[in-house]
Amino acid sequence: MSAAGRPGGESAARSWTDTPQGGPTVLRIVLGTQLRRLREDRGISREAAGDAIRASHAKISRLELGRVGFKERDVADLLTLYGVGDEQERGELLGLARRANTPGWWHQYADVLPGWFETHIGLEEAAHTIRTYEVQFVPGLLQTEAYARAVTRLGHPRATESEVGRRVDMRMTRQKLLDRPGAPRLWVVLDEACLRRPLGGVEVMRGQLEYLIEAATLPHVTLQIAPFDVGGLAAAGGPVTILRFSEPALPDIVYLEQLTSALYLDKQEDVEHYLTVMDRLAAEAEPPRNSARLLAGLIDRLG
Q1: Structural domains in the chain (count)
Q2: Residue 25 CA to chain centroid, in angstroms?
């Protein structure tokens, strides 16, 4: 059966080719998914596919996961191996390969952007819904510039002022995601601990809390606070972000950030586990209508 005859086949390639917010990271994942399905439909091993493009089976695995860029020649050779002869279908997939290799806006910050976080920014750009739970810091998408500078200095104590500025600029550029037409829905649950810690000093924290009150009024932002007297939140084990996409070829992805790396989980059982945890967190936290009042109370405590 051709890719055009399967869900997530040619139609997936065309939809992402026509979708502006389908950044290169997501396009690579979509194309890799199509190539994996074609290979498996033909019963071809990764080793045989690697031989066809003069590469190892490990490279085929990375291509199919969307972890590396695509050479058009390699994609063309794989399509030939997989028996894809229809010119329109080949053209769609090769066009997808070209777009997947187009640098995203974040590549201008390559000097301060770790590879493991680059993937997250690319996924964030294409997400339909972003759900996140934070225990230590206000999420990057909702940070003020002053708060972001304080967080950056804390995480990179040896960075120069220029490097700190570059990282803060990147974070502020990232936030433009929420201002564009068709912005994703952002649903945030904040542990009270991250709101009580006066990072950057009292005035910086006051400005951050005031900004959260303002952000919570946006129609596509849902903000909840989990106060100290709510139990059971430790089940999350730390900060969690779940990204959901409109494209049916893409599964939900769970992002777990660590100090110098990150995990990306897309297996159904892992995603379902974290969705259950996130639903419980949202159910136990204060409802969104109480957020402004709770934030105002924390501002008053600052004096």
Answers
A1: 2
A2: 10
106-151 pLDDT tens trace: 989 999 998 889 889 988 988 999 999 999 999 999 999 999 999 9
Q: Please give the angle made by the CA atoms of 19, 21 and 22, to the nearest 5 degrees.
A: 65
**SS3 category, 132:** strand
219: amino acid identity, one letter:
P
Domain holding 121, by residue range, is: 116-302
Neighbours of 214 (CB within 10 A): 12
Question: Between the CA of residue 148 and those of 87, 111, 175, 199, 216, what are the distances in Å?
Answer: 49, 18, 12, 10, 18
The two tokens of residue 66 are 């969307």
What is each CA distance from 86 to 25, 37, 100, 177, in whole angstroms? 26, 17, 21, 37
Question: Each residue of 210-246: pLDDT tens digit?
Answer: 999 999 999 999 999 999 887 656 556 789 999 999 8
DSSP 245-295: -S-TTS--EEEEE-SS-EEEE--HHHHHHHHHHHHHHHHHSPPGGGHHHHH
Q: Which amino acid belongs to residue 94?
A: L
HEC letters along 159-174: CCHHHHHHHHHHHHHH
Give 244-278 pLDDT, tens digit per residue. Answer: 998 777 789 999 988 778 898 988 999 999 999 99
Domain identity same for 140 and 184: yes
Does residue 111 form part of some domain? no
Enter the pTM of the model.
Answer: 0.81
CB atoms within 10 A of CB 54: 10
Please give the DSSP secondary-structure letter assigned to residue 101: T
Do 19 and 91 lie in one domain? The reply is yes
Q: What is the mean pLDDT of residues 67-84?
A: 91
- The pLDDT of residue 7 is 35
